[in-house]
Design a protein that fits this description.
- This protein starts with a strand and ends with a helix.
- A five-stranded antiparallel β-sheet has the order 5-6-7-8-9.
- By secondary structure, it is of the alpha+beta class.
- The radius of gyration is 18 Å and the shape is elongated.
- Strand 6 and strand 7 form a beta hairpin.
- Helix content is 16%, strand content 47%.
- It is built from one helix and nine strands, in the order E-E-E-E-E-E-E-E-E-H.
- The mean pLDDT is 80.
């Protein structure tokens, strides 16, 4: 995935145009499974959601099996805009609790990830 910003140029009399930024950040997947030990699995993952533009969420998921239940713990949760317009894209940053950072959408996206895993395991 590539995270990027763009530069816009123009004047009062001429339309604005997009100049691609040279400050794009490429995020590689890397190893997904970090650890399998006993009834614990620890994995790196990335998901996304839309809110006017696309956002990516990176996180570490620890899944622990207790008898017939699986408990999911999300940690190291960070988010990034895919495109930040004319603002420099700093990549992944900690999720803020401010409403403008839409933490509820982050929580919804993580819950959907847990639901997908649970559905897959029940097949």
């Amino acid at each position: 995935m590539v995270l990027a910003s763009e530069n816009y140029s123009g004047s009062l009399w001429w339309p604005y145009y997009n100049v691609p930024s040279q400050q794009a950040i490429t995020v590689s997947g890397g190893d997904t499974i970090k650890l399998v030990e006993g009834n614990h699995v620890v994995a790196n993952a990335v998901t996304d959601y839309l809110y006017h533009t696309k956002y990516f969420i990176s996180y570490i998921l620890t899944a622990t099996c207790h008898q017939n239940n699986i408990h999911y713990l999300f940690s190291n949760i960070k988010q990034a805009h895919q495109y930040t317009g004319s603002v420099v894209n700093d990549g992944f940053e900690n999720v803020k609790t401010l409403e403008s950072a839409h933490p509820n959408l982050v929580i919804d996206a993580l819950n959907k990830e847990a639901d997908k895993i649970q559905e897959c395991l029940l097949r």
